[in-house]
Amino acid sequence: MEIKVLVVDDEIDFLETIVKRLEKKGLHTVGVTSGEDALIKIKEKYYDVILLDIKMPGGMDGLDALKEIKSRQPLAEVILLTGHGTVESSVEGMRLGAFDYVLKPAKFEELCEKIAQAYMKKSDQDNKIRKANIQQLLRFPGRVFDQE
Amino acid sequence: MSKPMYRVFRQKMIIITLLISFVPLTLLGYTIYYGFAKAYCQRVEQQMTARVTACSQSLDLFLEERKVILSAIAKSGSLSYYNDPSHLRELFETINNQTGGGLVDLGVIDSHGDHLAYVGPYSLEGFNYREQAWFNLVMAKGIYVSDVYMGFRQMPHFVIAVKAGDAAGDWILRATIDPEIFARIVTTAQTGKTGDAFIINSAGICQSPSRFNKKEILAPSGLDPSRFGSSTTVVKKNTVSGLRRVHVGKWINNGNWLLVVTQDPDENLPSFSDMKTEEITIFSLALFAIVVTTVVTTGMSVNKLQERDRELEELNAHLIQTDKMAALGKMAAGVAHEINNPLGIIATKAGWMRDLLEEEAFRNSDNFKEYDGALRKIEEHVERAGKVTHNMLGFARSMEPVMERVNINGVLKKTLEFLDHHAQINNIRINTGFDDAIPEIMSDRSQLQQVFLNIINNAVDAIEKQGTITVETAKNAETLVIDIKDTGKGIPDTVKKRIFDPFFTTKAAEKGTGLGLSITYRIIEKLGGTIRVKSRKGKGTCFTVVLPLTLSKKTIA
Ligand SMILES: Nc1ncnc2c1ncn2[C@@H]1O[C@H](COP(=O)(O)OP(=O)(O)OP(=O)(O)O)[C@@H](O)[C@H]1O
Ligand SMILES: [Mg+2]
Ligand SMILES: [Mg+2]
């Protein structure tokens, strides 16, 4: 199963290249340039990891988008892309449920590492959910479930 | 204020303080002295007035007695009887015995002015007095007391003469008063060292000798009798030599003579020249004490003021510096941010090119090595530029520290792990001496990490190859002390002053930005701590960071 990644950044040149590089790494990657577009995209499809630039011009900045994303797709892991000037906002972002943050200009290797970690966490969580669902499915009154 | 201004200020203070203490004191002293002197003078005048009154009464009584006796004799006797010198002598002696002396001589003169009989030390019989003023006055008035005059005997004297009448015609009984006895009564009114008493007539001529001024009888006294009224009068005069004199006068002898008592009213008044040595010593000591106290206290307050001013100046300088740094920080943040974005793009583009380069087609290209090398250079320099902006941003970060519980030993361990690989390559040993008993403190973990990283990085740079870095922690009463020692090349004194300045570096352009320690300094300051450096050239360097155990008000604010 492919990892699905959504990259949100207003800097088109950066966005384009990073998308290409991630694709080349074999990830299913989609890029958008604003928070609003990101919300549309996550409605269409389910993303495992979302790279989100904190500082974006226009109506919705990174933190606003983060809140929205987390309320609509709580299981998607968000990695914040941040400049130094916005380290404080990244801390705030972590509180709002972001998985981690990466300082720009980010090293591609570091980025990939973070995505991998986020995806691991995500699949862990998916697993747990799956297990819970199975438990739910196999729970019958009067019978002890002793598989674990 | 400059140094000389403080001196002037100090002098002014001293003068003003001394004036404030001395002027009222002097005024008070003068007022008291003046009041005392005035009262004293009044008393002297009163005493003089009393003496004048008493003495004038005695003198009048003396004259009156003689006048009464002479008139009684003249009325009861006759010219023929007293014409006999033996009778006259008998009378003369009786009077002098009864009244205690006072008559020098006694004479009988007929209405023609011929001296008929005489008892006394001079031989005046046969003189004729018709031409003398007193003779005519007696003839006219019946009784007369003369002024002092020289007369035929050429000695100052005065006479009392009474006119009598009997069958043989008018005749005159005339007595010369002993000026000595009279003067003796006058001198009873003299007192003190400067006191004097004498009599003058209505023309101001002395009728009795004066104690001072060498005024002989019959010499002008220099006093103007018209200034004295009918009752006892006080007249004040300043003499040429600046002395004050009070004259008290009373008319006697039916207003013909003036008894004058005079004295220097200040005679017994204490003056400064009379002060004793002890008094002068005590006074000078008090004066000295006041001056010394004034000088010392003024000096102390001026010094305090100077110190305060200096502190204020320092504070000002510090504030200005802080302001400058803040402005610089803002600018740096803006610049760094603007550069970071393009840098990010360059980096990703280069990365993309490298990705493509991995593909088979490129790998076999002739220029693969060239491309690869060029890309590596791009990546290297992007990283270098990134380091600059990274540091600038670290420097500029508004640095609202995010306070949390921090285990300093933990932070140090993490930081050292970070550098372990690098240190091993360069053959650098890292020793640690952590005090495990140190408590967690409230501080900013990531900023502290930055601090330690900067300091240890510098240590690694200073050692270059082969050496030791020692990191130790310890707890003091209210602080944590972190020592980071290296055996590197040390910092020369000329450099030491500037190591905390932003952009100051001794390293090659691609190695150092010169921001490391300035960021370190700012962070520690914000966290309420201090940083010190000790270094010996060629031996090594020790940076000591001191952090507060508890948050001070300054750090929270
Ligand atoms: N442990 C040390 N031993 C010797 N010199 C030192 C040491 N620490 C600092 N210095 C001197 O202080 C200067 C300033 O240090 P600072 O960390 O501010 O800048 P830098 O290290 O030159 O640059 P950067 O930190 O950006 O790499 C250094 O260039 C160096 O000359
Ligand atoms: Mg942006
Ligand atoms: Mg440095």
Give a summary of the structure in a few sentences:
The complex is a heterodimer of chains A (148) and B (557). Chain A is an alpha/beta fold and 148 residues long. Chain A has helices spanning 12-24, 35-44, 62-72, 87-95, 108-138, and strands at residues 4-8, 28-32, 49-53, 77-82, 100-103.
Which chains make the largest contact? A-B, 20 and 25 residues
The number of helices of chain A is 5
Kindly provide the radius of gyration of chain B, computed on alpha-carbon positions and rounded to a whole number of angstroms. 61 Å
- Estimated radius of gyration of chain A: 17 Å
| Ligands, deduplicated | adenosine-5'-triphosphate, magnesium ion
Overall strand count of chain B: 16
The biggest sheet of chain A amounts to: 5 strands, parallel
**Helix content class of chain B:** 40-55%
Task: Write up this protein.
The complex is a heterodimer of chains A (148) and B (557). With 148 residues, chain A is of the alpha/beta class. Chain A is built from 5 helices and 5 strands. In chain A, strands 2-1-3-4-5 form a 5-stranded parallel β-sheet, sandwiched between helices. In chain A, α2 packs parallel to α3. Chain B contains 13 helices and 16 strands. In chain B, strands 2-1-5-4-3 form a 5-stranded antiparallel β-sheet, sandwiched between helices. Classes of the chains: A alpha/beta (148), B alpha+beta (557). At the A-B interface, α1 and α4 of A face α6 and α8 of B. The complex binds adenosine-5'-triphosphate and magnesium ion (MG) (2 copies). The site of one magnesium ion has 5 residues of chain B, from α10.
